[in-house]
Amino acid sequence: MEKYNPKTPMMTKKLTGIATFLIFFLFLSPTLHSQEAKEPDTYVSDNANIHFFASTVMEDIEATSKAGVCALNTKTKKISAKVAMTSFEFRRKKMQEDFDEDYAESAKYPYAILNATIVENINLTKDGTYDVTLKGTFEMHGVKQDREIKGKLTIKNGHPASATAQFEVKLVDHKIKVPTIVVMKIAEVVKVNVDLTFKKYQ
Predict the structure, then answer these.
(1) Distance separating alpha carbons of residues 163 and 99, to the nearest angstrom
(2) % helix / strand / coil in the chain, to the nearest 5?
(3) Which of 51, 69, 82, 104 has its CA 20 to 30 A from that of 195?
(4) Domain ranges of the chain
(5) pTM exceeding 0.85
(6) What single DSSP character describes residue 101?
(7) Distance between first and last Cα of the chain
């Protein structure tokens, strides 16, 4: 058997993904602590693509994470989602360091979390792509905000297949402070795009 080397990038990335997935299901989603999780009503995504973009005078800032996790219960229409702040990858290492250390303070506030419910009365067993509104709370940097987020949900073969969402995050709403010396480099509003595929929770 090959000896585990903690410095092996692929192994580290794989283990990080597994750890994030397990932490999510053990501690985040209330739907998975209930009897409903044992029924064929819960669908999950463990590799959601989350991209954020901010256009500034100095330069555009963007990053992507492919490690978002999400659970949708079709019986209650509740959605729980979570992403590790350190999973976002920037085009420049310096940007990533500044993001983790100075703005997101990822060591202190490791996750962004959404707990919401689909507002619309949609038949989640009827094939089609539906406009949906997620109403609930979004937490980042330790601050929770009531949010309504617009998105689209695709039902295929009678089951949730994929979903997308777009929303904006105001730094001030989550008490993210920007040092005066770099204030011109940082946009006050960050645009977020989410793209994910579902599978049955087993």
Answers:
(1) 27
(2) 25, 45, 30
(3) 104
(4) 40-200
(5) no
(6) I
(7) 29
Among 51, 71, 54, 73, which Cα is nearest to 63's?
51
**Cα 89 from Cα 110, distance rounded (Å):** 15
Task: Give the Cα separation of 49 and 193 in Å (integer).
Answer: 8
30: left (phi over 0), alpha (psi -120 to 50) or beta: alpha
Q: What angle do CA 165, 129, 52 make, to 5 degrees?
A: 15
Residue 197: count of CB within 10 angstroms of its CB? 16
- Fold classification of 40-200 is Lipocalin (2.40.128)
Tell me how many degrees the CA angle 109-114-118 measures, rounded to the nearest 5: 175
- pLDDT tens across the length of the chain (202 residues): 444 444 444 444 444 444 444 434 443 444 344 444 444 699 999 999 999 998 777 778 899 999 999 999 999 999 999 999 999 999 888 888 888 888 889 999 999 999 999 999 999 999 999 999 999 999 999 999 999 999 999 999 999 999 999 999 998 888 887 655 454 456 688 899 999 999 998 7
Nearest to 160 by CA among 114, 199, 202: 199
